[in-house]
Amino acid sequence: MKWSKLKVYRMLQSTEKSSLAGGLEMFHTETGRSLLDLVDESPVLLIFLRHFACAFCAQTLDRVSQLLPQIAAKGVRPVFVHLGSRERAKPYFDYYNLSDIERISNPDATLYRLPAFGLSRTNPYLHFFNLTVWKGWLKGAMFKYGIGMIKEDAEQMPGVFFLKDRKIVRAFRHRTIADEPDYLKLIGAG
What we know:
The chain is of the alpha/beta class. The chain has a 5-stranded mixed beta sheet with strand order 3-2-1-4-5, sandwiched between helices. The longest helix has 19 residues. It is globular, with a radius of gyration of 16 Å. The relative contact order is 0.20.
């Protein structure tokens, strides 16, 4: 089912109509499955990325790829949400051996803005003045993962949510782009 931008906008504006289940039903993965169907089948680790030029987003893809056996052992399905097109995203997911992982292309960031997730926006230039970000870059993110040409929204902040039984069980909303969530702890395995 396709949702018009007007319908999404109205849903975002009304807290009464913006139940988590209603929001999850509106969004579909690149394979055509609704996010609500996936959550109804098994717990989901919903991972929101920033943009594909971001070293910390590459770090996220790498880390989740490494933890995939432990996440799967807990019966949890990772699902990524990104701001790029399917075509732009494919090589990144392929590179980190995440080709078969469900993902949602959300260039207009409507899923990021659902009240249940409440992911904020920031001035991307402020990251250059943030000590935590510099420590993350110097710790290896920039050297290992590099940076590239920003084609998506650099102001959108990421986050990670553990969804089970149509509820957010645990959430991690980034305060800086360098924050490192504990994915296993979020799913109750850490």
